[in-house]
Amino acid sequence: MLRLAGVRELAPRHDGFLLDQWGVLHDGGAALPGALDCLARLREAGKRVVILSNSGRSGAANGTAMRRFGIEPHLYDAVVTAGDDARQALLERSDPFHRALGRRALVIARDEEVSLAADFGLTAVHDPASADLVLVLSLDAGRRTVSDYEALLAAARARDLPMVCANPDVAIVRPGAVVEAPGAIARRYEAMGGKVRYHGKPDAGIYARALAVLARSGVAAPRAVALGDSIVHDVGGARNAGLACALVAAGIHREALGVAFGELPEPRRWAEFAAEAGLEPDYLVGAFVW
Predict the structure, then answer these.
(1) 173 shares a domain with 35
(2) CA dihedral 33, 35, 36, 37 (to 10 degrees)
């Protein structure tokens, strides 16, 4: 594994960059220091950039949201999301799991996103007794926690409802904190004995979508690198897809690694962390900076 001072050391090695959002480009409140400059420099160097996110919302919706942080469309080629992957699977129903699902969904999401169930070909219901499945899209961090859904999950489990998780992240970076994410709800449901189908990283399928975008620009998989802040989702996902990968140390693992923004962990602490995770990236960088 190579310890890097910045992304500029990756540029000569790779032509395509698959970038995570939260903890890499922004924290949900603002672009992270140096991120806009780094994106601009990658584009100036002729690199292709796909933002690969575990967001339960569409790529288009994420693109609109990122403009609030100054992440404009000219800085990347496409946004590929777990939400889009789940949406296509539920609309097409080409595999046995999704084909067997009903159409009435108990939706776990921010209040304003419950209506998005219609985009998945589903009807949102509010009572587990009338639902055919559970659809997890988002978690209103700061207002709700996984424990707030305990009774709802227990009622769904009592009916053996299958769950589709369109955002498998268990934690995300928020301004000044690392908070629970929708995947933590799905993990809790699994712990109850519930059946869950995850969409997004670390599943290799979402990488195939992103790599197809790069391929249209003439970038083959061996010249691509995935960069994110989750050892499980970003590093594990890249490994599942056979891709080179870089981990941003000062993301969701910053406390575990004992680092502040832009810092690299002390080698012994990193070795202990990587050994426990059972995964190691090709590159380690303090932040998404040039």
Answers:
(1) no
(2) 90
